Amino acid sequence: MALRRGKLTRQPCEECGDPRVEAHHDDYSKPLAVRWLCRADHGAWHEAKGPGLIPADALREFKRRNR
């Protein structure tokens, strides 16, 4: 939603420069703070740091902000 509204601009992968990226959130309570990673580097990030958890209150806030 933030991409369509112009609040975010897709960037190349911050690890390898690949233009085909996914948005990764370190903290879902900050929905506009994203890390742009290609699929391989996104998977590697989660492999190294775990699946990550979304606290219920952060998820509610994320959904509220992105309606």
The helix content is 25-40%
Task: Give the ordered list of helices and strands.
Answer: EEHH
The separation of the N and C termini measures 8 Å
Q: What is the count of DSSP helices, taking H or I runs of 4+ residues? A: 2
Basic shape: flat
Largest sheet at a glance?
A: 2 strands, antiparallel
Description:
This protein has helices at 39-49, 56-65; strands spanning 22-25, 34-37. The protein is built from 2 helices and 2 strands; from the N terminus they run ββαα. The chain has 67 residues and is of the alpha+beta class. Helix content is 31%, strand content 12%. Strands 1-2 form a two-stranded antiparallel sheet. The protein has one domain (1-55). β1 and β2 form a beta hairpin. The chain starts with 21 loop residues before the first strand and ends with a helix. The model has no long low-confidence stretch (mean pLDDT 86). The longest helix has 11 residues, at 39-49. 6% of the residues are buried.
SSE layout and pairing:
Elements (H helix, E strand, L loop, with lengths): L21 E4 L8 E4 L1 H11 L6 H10 L2
Antiparallel strand pairs: 1-2
Quickly describe the structure.
31% of the residues lie in helices and 12% in strands. It is α+β, with helices and mostly antiparallel strands.
Kindly list the characteristics that best describe this protein.
two-stranded antiparallel ribbon, about 10% strand, flat, alpha+beta, 2 helices, 2 strands, about 70 residues
